[in-house]
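Run log // design_07
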């Protein structure tokens, strides 16, 4: 029993550990930390990808006794087919998000969503210029309508022509590579349907062909992400630097506390606005007002644009309710544990679902409607106010743990920071620091939480090790929230963790921006939600253009220290295809086939320049990421020297 209690504390977040300790044995409901223990030992067949459940003759598990499935499928077919279906799940999730943003933008352009508006005309015009859409003398809503038409065509195209969005946002060399391999998507939904058919029982058995399909699906995922980010910026504003706080200490017992959870800013923006408008209703109940806070990527969205504090990230979402201070948890789509409802029943908290595709038995449901957005948001707030009246002070235990956060670094905001040093060519500030050796590279820290690792530990160790070795860090998703909660998204962390080169680079930026920013820059630049990984790749593309190389030559890597979801598999796969070394701290279900595993770890590099790195130990992970960056720096330096010596153009190959 004592051992179980010890293992239950699978987190390095002091707020999480406090809630676990305070609630031990008090309530009948369990948490993800308990269920992880109950699930041990986990199925080794599923863990390595050699369990097939695609047809109902199975499940077929590959063993020494049974070397093939009932249909005759080899392990490499089973693993590759499972990979495609995992990527499909991720692609479909991001497509759902991107399509909702597109349809709302169309409603705004037609005047059918009165509570929403075009907030960022600069981003609107940038998109119009990208697609050669005329702007002169035209109404902004008509311009938006033309942009949305291109986005919706990329979702639904049936004529087999290439995507229109993707070639506008990545390098031509990448497009040629994808055409050469026949993985350039035509449409998002068409790719999803085609891949589902290809992985049906009795269909494709060729592992290489299936891996190519997984990459095609992943590129469709990237298109959906890029569309979601771009149109959200137009509707809600492109993020700029903002100061806030993070971790469970942001809960305030004097306020009605509403946690907004999921991934879709279309709902959360309205909730935040309605909460501010309804302060008077809360005051009538004796509260000082209504306080919103975020969990998962919805939290990232409203942090970036509204300065709303971060409450927690994925693994600890149930524990937020167990503080006894959350009056309502309002959820939209993705990464919502069904377990939150069982926990809420031990408290006064209302769980409120809002989307037709996300319902939880026992929870409240408010069917969110874009055309009546504010009305529906107010309905949600009313439920939270009702819950506040039932709050039990005896059950409240808020950990006194929170940290200052400086966030809001969209690509535009990041380049604006660089522009204070070099207004004519902002990205050159970064590439010059790389070429001089001041910086060792750039790393995108992304991904989820996964209790196969100690909650947040891999995130924090890898970031600290990379910073110590002069790597510029950008972050998204639950990774970004791990850094926010632990105090890595502020300037104090630069002094504490940055190596001399990174510190000098940050000091130069701070000095140049001292009259432009209210706060010094953080150790890790928070770039947004999961779909905003597209922002991070846009930065890599800008660096490649400045260096005059293809992206596989840029000293830029990605790391998902606690990858968990199908979305992470889709994101990691497009990052590899687009030329990144991608570290993953939880080995995905591929090792059951050495052939497919070898493609991911080695052969992908030869074809696309990107490749996966599996490593569960965070210190070893940091070493391998640094080695990948060093290799690229060395090649870039040698190729530049050769180009200068022989007076020729710089080789773009890797």
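design_07 sequence
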């Amino acid at each position: 029993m004592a051992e179980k209690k010890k293992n239950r504390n699978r987190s390095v977040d002091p707020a999480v550990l406090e809630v676990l300790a305070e609630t031990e044995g008090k309530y009948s409901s369990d948490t993800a930390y308990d269920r992880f223990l109950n699930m041990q030992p986990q199925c080794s067949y599923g863990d390595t990808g050699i369990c097939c459940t695609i047809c109902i003759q199975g499940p077929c598990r590959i063993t020494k006794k049974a070397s093939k499935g009932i249909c005759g499928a080899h392990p490499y077919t089973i693993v590759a087919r499972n990979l495609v279906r995992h990527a499909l799940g991720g692609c479909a999730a991001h497509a759902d998000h991107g399509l909702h943003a597109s349809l709302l933008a169309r409603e705004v352009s037609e005047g059918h969503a009165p509570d929403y508006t075009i907030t960022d005309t600069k981003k609107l015009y940038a998109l119009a210029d990208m697609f050669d859409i005329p702007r002169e003398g035209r109404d902004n809503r008509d311009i938006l309508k033309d942009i949305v038409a291109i986005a919706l065509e990329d979702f639904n195209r049936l004529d087999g022509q290439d995507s229109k969005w993707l070639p506008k946002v990545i390098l031509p060399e990448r497009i040629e590579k994808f055409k050469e391999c026949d993985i350039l998507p035509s449409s998002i939904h068409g790719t999803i349907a085609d891949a589902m058919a290809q992985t049906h029982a009795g269909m494709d058995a060729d592992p290489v062909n299936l891996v190519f399909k997984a990459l095609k699906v992943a590129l469709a995922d990237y298109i959906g992400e890029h569309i979601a980010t771009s149109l959200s910026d137009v509707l809600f504003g492109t993020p700029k630097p903002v100061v806030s706080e993070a971790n469970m200490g942001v809960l305030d017992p004097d306020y009605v506390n509403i946690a907004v959870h999921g991934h879709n800013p279309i709902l959360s923006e309205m909730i935040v606005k309605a909460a501010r408008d309804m302060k008077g209703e809360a005051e009538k109940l004796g509260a000082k007002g209504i306080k919103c806070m975020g969990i998962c990527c919805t939290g990232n969205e409203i942090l970036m644009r509204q300065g709303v504090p971060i409450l927690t990230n994925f693994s600890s979402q149930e524990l937020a309710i167990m503080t006894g201070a959350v009056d309502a948890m309002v959820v939209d789509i993705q990464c919502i544990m069904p377990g939150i409802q069982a926990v809420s029943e031990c408290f006064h908290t209302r769980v409120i679902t809002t989307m037709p595709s996300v319902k939880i038995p026992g929870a409240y449901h408010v069917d969110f409607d874009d055309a009546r957005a504010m009305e529906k948001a107010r309905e949600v707030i009313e439920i939270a106010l009702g819950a506040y009246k039932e709050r039990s002070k005896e059950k409240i235990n808020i950990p006194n743990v929170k940290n200052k956060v400086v966030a809001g670094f969209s690509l535009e905001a990041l380049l604006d920071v660089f522009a204070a040093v070099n207004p004519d060519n902002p990205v050159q500030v970064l590439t010059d620091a790389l070429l001089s050796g001041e910086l060792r590279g750039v790393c995108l820290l992304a991904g989820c939480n996964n209790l196969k690792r100690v909650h947040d530990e891999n995130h924090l160790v890898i970031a600290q090790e990379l910073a110590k070795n002069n790597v510029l860090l950008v972050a998204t998703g639950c990774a970004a929230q791990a850094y926010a909660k632990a105090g890595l998204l502020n300037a104090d962390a630069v002094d504490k963790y940055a190596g001399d080169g990174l510190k000098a680079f940050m000091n130069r930026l701070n000095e140049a921006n001292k009259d432009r920013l209210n706060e010094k820059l953080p150790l890790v630049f928070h770039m947004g939600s999961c779909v905003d990984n597209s922002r991070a790749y846009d930065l890599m593309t800008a660096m490649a253009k400045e260096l005059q190389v293809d992206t596989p030559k840029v000293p830029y890597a990605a790391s998902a220290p606690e990858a968990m979801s199908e979305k992470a598999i889709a994101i990691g796969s497009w990052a590899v295809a687009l030329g990144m070394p991608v570290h993953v701290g939880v080995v995905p279900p591929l090792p059951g086939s050495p052939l497919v595993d070898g493609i991911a770890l080695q052969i992908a590099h030869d074809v696309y320049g990107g490749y996966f790195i599996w490593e569960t130990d965070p210190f070893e992970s940091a070493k391998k990421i640094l080695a990948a960056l060093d290799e690229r720096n060395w090649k870039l330096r040698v190729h530049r020297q050769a180009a200068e010596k022989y007076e020729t153009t710089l080789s773009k190959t890797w």
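Confidence is low (pLDDT under 50) at residues 1-5.
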